[in-house]
Amino acid sequence: MIKITPTHPNYGLSKSKDENSLDENFISPLPRAVIRPNHFILLDGEWKFSVDPENVGLQESWYVNHDFKYTAQWPGSVEEHIKNGLQSDVSWYDKYVVWYERSFPKPVLPKEDIHPSSQLQLTFGACGYETQVWLNGHHLKTIDGEDIHYGEYTSFSYELDEMLLQANNRITVRIAVSMDADIPRGKQESHVYKRGGIWYQTYTGAVRSIWLETVERNRLRSRVGVVSVVEDNLVRFNFTTRIHDPGLYTIKLKVYHKKQESEEPIAIDEFPLRLSAGEKQQRLVMEIPEAKYWSPVTPHLYRLVAQLVDTHGYAAEIETHFGLRKIEARGSCVYLNNQRIYLDGILYQPGTATYEEIKRHMYAMKELGCNLVRIHIAGVDPRIYKIADKIGLLLWVEVPSPHSSSHKSRINHQEELHRMLALIETHPSVVIWSLYNEDWGAQDIASNIETRNYIMDRYHFMQIEHPQFLVVDNDGWQHISYQGRLKSDLLTAHLYTADLEKWKEMLDSLISGQIDHVAVLPLVVGDPFFYRKQVPLLVSEWGGFGFADYGGPQDAAQRETFIKQFKTELRKRGIAGDVYTQATNIEDEKNGIIDFKTGALDVAAGLLNSNNL
């Protein structure tokens, strides 16, 4: 068996806690917004591993018995596991099927977790693109009823039947990955886009932690939506209940300041509900007295403790943090909590960065003077949102784009959007969503009414169901106009040049309302659109200094000079924000201003804060 240095897990159950509950060096291993006062076991470490090149594993029942010849470290990518195990070139494959397996002893539950309603749950922080799971040879269905889980950027879980558990247990996982251009993949290579330039090596499969934890049969799921009404100091919580035993329940809510000396909540309320078996979404509204708003300057957070209480008085509890904030596009400006704000942004592509590296990058971007980080079409460790909540960084997130425009790609895109929303809408830092970027996966947006209709439908859905966000239909160019109405809250443009005089001309053309010949493609498609300052303008990509295709300075000192000059011209004009490209180097894109490993700045602190100009 080929060995890779193993990391042996601790089979003792660990108590769930927040990242900031002990000290600044504590790293919460569970990538989610919600905390449960329960116990968990991380199953990260060494797993048995096999490649299934002929895709015969299902037919031959590998989940019952198979001789796994290799080992691999979980988490990690399928690509690196194949290279480490087989010493083969995995670039430009069509599809790979791989299998993982490991054993674990039946956990001994602490006394506080022993209750008739307790059960074990298996959770994947992210895995895919297609994932199937077996426990002791028995095929499992996800909580959402999926035989096969599709998607590779968000978490999913399995409730484990006590009857299936043994003294020693075996988990078997089958993962299928491919170069399919119809699936959401961001900037990873595909059949359409070959690796190189701005297209990156694929990093798929067992990419995030996996853990066992105790949960209740009747509980609140680990997804809490938050919508603030700052004018009335109200917060709307959207909960999802999971019920096996129908009947009368009460949801009790307690709100605290994240840091407060008193143990008394600042707000408390309860809501009686009759719940049927299955799942139900329920909105509950609370008033926060003397509310403090969340912003990059004062990132004030509250702590929410939510309990689902049954008729016997048993309380199934979750805890999370939230902030009160409101983001709006009014005329040509962006407003945060009813105050005009200029968005000093930076493009961030974490790639294969570890959580520790991501944390350093986030603090470095704050040090640069940014109040906004655009996380570029990537599925990232969800703990990144908690960092942003804490230190005060606005986040612009994007659905990882497919690479082809088809009915199938639109279905996959919609499902990915909904999965992301369910897990991200707790965080006050997330303020902007992009549905597409530069028409990747929507290449026929100008000519195909079906493509435009789909994007418009998703835009309207976001406006109604998730009003706490600003939404961009297709970032960079080719926004959609229908009957003269822009189907985007922001009119964004990607403008690249290393010539200062050309830069001035491009900006002047943009603010004059010129639609054609400003960005690479027309800024608006569909019906005619007349700007007239009715929507905020954002230059959502610019700079790229150091990237071969964009030219410009190669050394940090000259790059700093260029950034100051170009940023000064931006602020002279009626533009609502900008996003410098980019934070760190990644593969062929050598245009970063932060060291990828250390997080050290290559330019002066505060450089991107336009108030310093």
TrEMBL record:
Domain Glycoside hydrolase family 2 catalytic: 330-447
Entry keyword set: Glycosidase, Hydrolase
Signal peptide: none
GO molecular function: hydrolase activity, hydrolyzing O-glycosyl compounds
Domain Glycoside hydrolase family 2 immunoglobulin-like beta-sandwich residue range list: 230-325
Record InterPro entries: Beta-gal/glucu_dom_sf (IPR036156), Galactose-bd-like_sf (IPR008979), GH (IPR017853), GH2_Domain-Containing (IPR051913), Glyco_hydro_2_cat (IPR006103), Ig-like_fold (IPR013783), Ig-like_GH2 (IPR006102)
GO biological process, one term: carbohydrate metabolic process
Pfam families on file: Glyco_hydro_2, Glyco_hydro_2_C
Family: Belongs to the glycosyl hydrolase 2 family.
Name of the protein: Glycoside hydrolase family 2
Organism: Pedobacter aquae
